[in-house]
Amino acid sequence: MEPIRIMWRQVTEMTRDTIALLPQIGVAVLVLILTWALAAAGRALIGRALSRTRLRQSLQDLFILLTSIAIWVFGIMIAAVIVFPGLTPASILAGLGIGSVAIGFAFKDVFENFLAGIIILFRREMRMGDHIECEGIEGKVAHIAIRESHIRQTDGQLVIVPNAMLFKNPVYVRTDQKHRRVTIICGIAYDVDVDEARGVITKAVEGCETVEQGDHPIQVFAQEFADSSINFEVTWWTGSAPVDLRRSKDEVVTAVKRALDDAGLEIPFPYRTLTFKEPLPLQQANEEE
What we know:
Subcellular location: Cell inner membrane; Cell membrane
Subunit structure: Homoheptamer.
Mean pLDDT: 80
Strand order of the largest sheet: 4-3-2-1-5
Radius of gyration: 36 Å
Low-confidence stretches: none
Family: Belongs to the MscS (TC 1.A.23) family.
Number of strands: 8
Main location: membrane
Membrane topology: Multi-pass membrane protein
Number of helices: 8
């Protein structure tokens, strides 16, 4: 019976202490409700103010999130002090400092991605809508969040990439500029005049609508003596999006092929000579007849 009495006494004391704390708990709950309202109002005010600036939407979302976190941390500290009068803001901050070390080790990758996301959001070189390539992943930046970024590949697949990967590794921003350079190789036969072929190819490329001809010149250089042809390196500039490159390549290849055919200039293909050590059966039959 004695253990039951001790247990009953402990339950009674805990109930009495809880009832004594009910006023403080009620005030703390009210503080949390007010914190929720202030956080919502703060997000709305910051969002309205930032919408009038030239900041990118991703940065606006970051500032709104940080504002909300700051309000919630302040409100939770006040509620904790109300429920536990022995606590002070200094002791809470000290506890958070000690706890943050342990949490930092436990969630190292999470915080790494978080900090990397903040740095990426401040980058001017990579924006939502840009086409990028990093570690074999290539596509359009669909969304940049605090911890991760969403890359929409050209085949429609969505790849969720940790921000630390985009921060630590080289990132190729394909659409950083309006135009990109494109290069193809075009071969002509050895009996074709090189200068004549260069002029025909240049004129064909100049007639393509997808080729940028302002500040970016079209370049056609004889590159090498290949096995069955003299190869030209044909270079021009077009739009920077992947679909622009594919469309321009299609138009240029078609135009160059048509121009060389119209000029009577051969685009060679490999010739193969076969040598047989023994007479062919067909040849033996013809000799017998």
